[in-house]
Amino acid sequence: MKDLTKYFLDAINSNLYWKHDMFFDAVNLLQLNKYTISFWLNEENWAIINLEDKTIGYMWINYPLLFVLNEYIADILTLLDSSQITIVGIKSLQKKEFKVDYNLLKDYLDYGFDSKCFSIEDLWFYTNSI
Fold this sequence. Notes:
Strand 3 and strand 4 form a beta hairpin.
């Protein structure tokens, strides 16, 4: 299991004006560069990043954290400033290979998913509703 706790804490402690400004700048930049973004303002915690008809990643609205498939990470890193956004490359959106220390993140993540074994898709599904 790959522990994602550090990535969440790095994003949470970044002290950036992310949620109301930089998130939308990142969305616009991705949309200008062949990606489509699925996100419902005031209803979802994560934006889905698609390329053509394929989901390639998820970006957290609350803090600067993005999970993206490894095959697209070079392009995403070119487009987005990785000094401002914690960008994590992953092999699969569906493979249950991740964990977090829920005790450290309970104020930021909804209760209800298996924090000791989940996929990025699980994380999105169980923590997406506002």
